[in-house]
Amino acid sequence: MTARLVLKPGRDKALLHGHPWIFSGAIETEPQRMAAGVTVLVESAGGKPLALASWSPKSQIRARVWSFDTTRPIDHAFFKRRVAEAIALRRALMPDFDRQGALRLLHGESDGLPGVICDWFRSELPVAGGEAGSPPSPAEVAGAAPAGKPVPPPGESWLVVQLTSAGAERWRDAIVAALVDATGTPNVYERSDSDVRGLEGLEPRTGVIRAAEGIEGPSAGFSIEENGLRLGVDIVGGHKTGFYADQRVNRAKVGRMSAGKRVLNTFCYTGGFSVAALAGGATQVTSIDSSADAIELARANVARNNLGNGRDDWICDDAFQALRRLRAEERQFDLIILDPPKLAPSAAHAERAARAYKDINLLGFRLLAPGGLLFTYSCSGAISPEFFQKIVAGAASDAPAEAVIVERLGADADHPLRLAFPEGEYLKGLVLRKAG
């Protein structure tokens, strides 16, 4: 029999509007002595069934909704359906689905799978007509895999999963099996090492979950193709799942707007924006990161694409200190990218993070030449788009600099946003033009 979780009177409004989180303060009666991750039936104070959710006794988010349909069980078939639906959505919205070396297949709550992230990395794209990277014809797809199922590429590919909730942990095997079946990719690596797992009472875990015969792990120098460029993916030791697929469309935009410009890429990590700018015809690209390993990988990415040729220079230093030094040297740039790591891991950190965001954007405006473009981002879910714009506006005022918003940026269609879950909009960006 499914355990019951009863809400306090009047505390079901968010749930009725489709929000998938249930906080401890909203609960009148909760399950006793139930293991973490077990499915519970959520009921209103009046006894009305509202949702099926995963139970997490150690988290302030006590339950995360799997489904608002309480008539169908949460079982292996449920996860198979959810994974298939997620892939079908991306296929419908992304005509170039089969041309992408890096894709987010599962995006947590926005795909109805709280705490489940999966990125798919393919070192080679499906072969058709004898040409690597060409999309398969309908006949080839039909002959190679069931209708609607992605065709596994001939080269090395990996599914990288990150499980951050108690429910995802409990259903780990079912989730992995559904992913392998849906994609035909046998290699699965786990990167469940984010701090969020600690809030759920879970220990970090990384390593190979499944692999084809003879495969022990991702190859050294493993790389994918993005926007016609080769980029290394450090699945084992890199940030998050090893690569930021969410910035794919924004890297392409930087490439298109870099011709003839002096470019500064701050928090460059493995140099995706730097490679795009060099390929786009930048006259000079200066890249900053505090990690020597990241700088090394970024340099390798430039070399992979036969770029640079004296147009690239690298600064291994704290970004804030490096920007102040560049300001003291009276350097100026025509296009600046500010893409810091998550500065606000939770709402409690938002105000402190706001000061850091303002500081870096203030320095960015001061280094930006008149008429130049500033690409500035926040990947903190606790910082709303409205708050981020307010922070950047304050930085411009203090610089002082007159600027206009040219464009608002986010991730591509493989990072869908659930309308009732605004917290899912973690990546937000602005392109600003400084007055000449």
Give a topology summary.
Blueprint: E1 3-7, H1 13-16, E2 21-23, E3 27-29, E4 39-43, E5 49-55, E6 61-67, H2 76-93, E7 102-107, E8 116-122, H3 138-144, E9 157-163, H4 166-170, H5 172-183, E10 188-192, H6 196-199, E11 205-210, E12 223-226, E13 229-232, H7 248-256, E14 262-266, H8 272-279, E15 284-289, H9 292-304, E16 312-316, H10 319-328, E17 333-338, H11 350-367, E18 368-378, H12 385-398, E19 403-409, E20 428-434
Parallel strand pairs: 1-4, 9-10, 14-15, 14-17, 15-16, 17-18
Antiparallel strand pairs: 1-3, 2-6, 4-5, 5-6, 7-8, 8-9, 10-11, 12-13, 18-20, 19-20
What does this molecule look like?
The protein is an alpha/beta fold and 436 residues long. It has three domains: 3-67, PUA domain (Archaeosine Trna-guanine Transglycosylase, Chain: A, domain 4); 76-210, 2-Layer Sandwich (Transcription Regulator spoIIAA); 244-434, Vaccinia Virus protein VP39 (Rossmann fold), CATH 3.40.50.150. Helices cover 28% and strands 27% of the residues. The chain contains twelve helices and 20 strands. The chain has helices spanning 13-16, 76-93, 138-144, 166-170, 172-183, 196-199, 248-256, 272-279, 292-304, 319-328, 350-367, 385-398; strands at residues 3-7, 21-23, 27-29, 39-43, 49-55, 61-67, 102-107, 116-122, 157-163, 188-192, 205-210, 223-226, 229-232, 262-266, 284-289, 312-316, 333-338, 368-378, 403-409, 428-434. The strands form four sheets. A seven-stranded mixed sheet has the order 16-15-14-17-18-20-19, with helices on both faces. It has a six-stranded mixed sheet with strand order 2-6-5-4-1-3. β5 and β6 form a beta hairpin. α11 packs across α12. The protein is globular, with a radius of gyration of 23 Å. 45% of the residues are buried.
